Amino acid sequence: MLAEVDGQETSNGTPRGASNGSRMGEGALAEASGRPLKVPPESTNGLSQNGKTTGHVTSPTYLGHDREEVTRILIQALTDMGYRSAAESVSRDSGYELESPTVAAFRTAVLDGSWAQAEELLEGAVASGSKRSGNGLVLAAGADRNIMRVWLRQQKFLELLERRETSRALMVLRSELTPLCSEQHQKLHFLSSLLMCQSTDDLKSKADWDGAHGESRRILLSELSRCISPSVMLPEHRLAVLLEQVKESQISNCLFHTSPDPPSLYSDHVCDRSHFPSEAVLELDQHAGELWQVCFSHDGTRLASCGMDPCIIIWSVPDFEVVHRITAHQDSEVCNLAWSPDDKMLVTCGKDRYAKIWNTETGALIKTLERFEEPVSSCVWAADCRTFITGSFDKDRSLCQWNLEGEQPYIWTKKHRTEDLAVSPDGHWLVAMDERNWLHVYNFVTRELEYEWDLKVRPTSVSISQDSRFLLVNKTDGEAQLIDIATRDAIQKYRGHFGGEYTIRSGFGGANESFVISGSEDGMVCIWHKLTGIPVQRLEAHHPRCNAVSWNPADPCMFATCGDDQKIKIWSNEPLRPSLAYSASHPNGTGTTQSSANGWRNSREQHLE
């Protein structure tokens, strides 16, 4: 990344950086604070009493940290921020260089496109663990010199194609890349296909590459730098990365984290418990039956709910007035709903064996999908906003992808009933939960089954974190489990709620998704700290069950719950306006409870073999 001021050097700094080495006078600092200043002996950094540099460093450490490492990181950070003269002064006063002349020459060669020089310097690099001789390149542990050569030659090949020097590019492909990629037939085939590009724009599009004068060389240097020992070439933006890790650590250790703003570096971070949302500030009771799903829109400005009656209701936030009341599935329960990524559409699915698409701005029906043979249990949108996935008890179409015209681009053929679904926000993972004990995890891009997981106990719901890393599984044994989707490692377990035999939904929420929240068969809503698993709150919510929860993605201090008592409760850390603290009457005036089913309990009992 370019320095903020100069714009000529990379984020990894200049061959020599430096700082002015000056500090606020100790007497002035002591006077400002009104107390004597105590300076550890090792922190004097060779300053005499008059503040002039003596050229002598009293200790190789700085408050227990390696002085050279700290100094080089500071030089890099000053360069990143554009304080180039300060960086040079620090380098001069300390005697430490950000990087050696050889490393600087390698950096310059890559950024200038001097590929022969870059390869020559790479050829002279020594392996990690070798005794460092002179100021040459040192490869990181596990680095593959041949892979680095491939990256350099691939960039060279693309730049020749960009300049329309096709014959030279073909020679690079045949004599330089092919010997290194002899077993990578798919890669060579792809590179060969680029020779047929009719224009520079076509080349950039197909190669997903922005050209020699874009960011491609800097991206290449960044990739190469990961293969070079940090002792000679610092990783990019090292101080910023360390500071980000400090902030993440402080957030992860804050039990009641409610602030969406990043912690200050000036002091240790802590959130007051009184700021945590733990009060039911509003009840909404305009449904005529049990509620099985409540869900905030992605922008947090609306709330949708559904359940035993055939209606879905869309509420505005934060005034919680009814925007649309839609009879979604005539004379049938609405089992689930899902907002599109742009919040302009909803998909609903019902016990009537239909799934439907709705316009959330007008409340109008967009499309009704062809009827399934069994109830439609779940629905979720793909990240592209053009397709969505339904889950059904119909084993022949238990997992289907649909477009907005109601066509099926794909049907997964594995024969299992699907009760719940989740798609990762990055579009990589699709997780299906069957009616037994199994999770089926698919690569949503390739549509291939990645793995299956026997939980040994029946799950009740699945959800995926916003960073697409973690899968949360709620189970009937009263335990929710956090799983790393890619590695399949169990990260954390959450206990204290009751899973029951039917759908009980859980999810992530709060600032930075610091919490896990779940409904419970005993009517409670339970909240845990995500990383530690420590219980944060256990609140009485609904009677007899709390079926679903949803944390407002735009407000870390607001979440919603719903239950068998036909109510939605809005929870916050402060009361809403008095005019909003009302309990609306039922639309049909009856208020009767029809059943204790949660979504399709009866349906499951009727259709399970």
TrEMBL record:
Spell out the Gene3D superfamilies in the cross-references: YVTN repeat-like/Quinoprotein amine dehydrogenase (2.130.10.10)
In this chain, composition skew of type Polar residues spans 8-22, 42-61, 585-601
Q: Which SMART domains does the UniProt record give?
A: WD40
Q: Where are the WD repeats?
A: 284-325, 327-368, 539-572
One Pfam entry name: WD40
Q: Looking at the UniProt record for this protein, which Gene Ontology cellular component terms does it annotate, in alphabetical order? A: GID complex
Q: Name one GO biological process term.
A: proteasome-mediated ubiquitin-dependent protein catabolic process
Q: Has keyword Repeat?
A: yes
Q: Which SUPFAM superfamilies match?
A: WD40 repeat-like (SSF50978)
The name of this protein is: WD40-repeat-containing domain protein
Q: Positions of the region Disordered?
A: 1-63, 581-609
